[in-house]
Amino acid sequence: MPISRILASSLRNRSGDCVNSLLHRLGSSRRVQCRNYSGAPKNNKRKLDTKPLVTTQQPQNSHSSPLAKFIIPTGLLAIVGAGIFVHYNDEKRVVLKGQGTDRLSCECKGPTVGGPFNLIDTEHNSVTERNFRGNWVLLYFGYTSSPDVGPEEVEKMAKAIKILESEQDLKVIPTFVTIDPERDSPRQLKAYLKEFDPRIVGLTGSICSIKDMAREYRIFFKKVEEDGADYLVQTSHNMYLLDPNLEIARCFGLEYTAEQLSEEVLKLTKSRPSKAPEKTPDS
Question: Which of 29, 135, 198, 226 sits a CA distance of 20 to 30 A from 38?
Answer without folding.
Answer: 29
